[in-house]
Design a protein that fits this description.
The chain is α+β, with helices and mostly antiparallel strands. It has helices spanning 14-28, 34-39, 91-106, 119-124; strands spanning 2-8, 44-50, 53-67, 70-82, 109-113, 128-129, 134-138, 141-144, 152-156, 167-169. Helix content is 24%, strand content 37%. It is globular and about 45 Å long.
């Protein structure tokens, strides 16, 4: 029997954190970097357990996104993965249900950067593809992030954004989106 448990990074023991990192390394391979791991920490984790085995993970961390002149408190989704042997059984949806619950309760907006394979998954859950240009606040000023266009999704909570407008994320090392 599987169980989704949510906890803040500060409340996870080293065994759970090690299991999450191992799952993410297995799911994404060399594409999952130290920066990606760091991006998944400091917020809420939804962890799907099958007994003592971690078979799924997703986290939501706070970021600031700029839309139409407003800085919005955003629940940014990171590190969504299900172990290969457990995929296509609805586990990703269970994880996202928990992440979306956290976003609804604490943020103005949800956001994420989706892989090409996940676009349909997020769209069917009500996430909306950002159609406008993407930017990032960098140490040198605001920079265009053209390579991210079409891959950013938002989940409106207290705002209904113009999906064709500009969207700007705060700075972080590694992948900014």
């Amino acid at each position: 029997m599987t169980e989704v448990r949510t906890a803040h990074t500060a409340d996870l023991d080293p065994t759970a954190l090690t299991a999450a990192r191992a799952l993410l390394d297995e799911a994404f391979g060399a594409d999952f970097t130290e920066h990606d791991w760091e991006h998944s920490l400091g917020g809420m984790h939804a962890m799907l357990w099958d007994g003592d085995e971690l078979i799924g993970h997703a986290s939501v961390v706070q970021r600031r996104l700029l839309l139409a002149g407003r800085a919005l408190r955003t629940g940014y989704v990171e590190a969504v993965a299900v172990a290969a042997a457990h995929r296509r059984d609805g586990h990703g949806a269970r994880l996202m249900t928990e992440v979306e619950r956290v976003i609804h309760g604490a943020y103005d907006l949800g956001a994420l950067s989706a892989s090409d394979e996940a676009h349909d998954f997020y769209a069917t859950r009500g996430w909306r593809r950002w159609r406008g240009p993407t930017f990032a606040v960098t140490p040198l000023g605001i920079a265009r992030t053209e390579e991210e266009d079409g891959g950013v999704y938002v989940f409106p909570v207290t705002v209904t954004p113009d999906l064709s407008g500009e969207i700007t994320c705060d700075w972080r090392d590694g992948d900014v989106w």
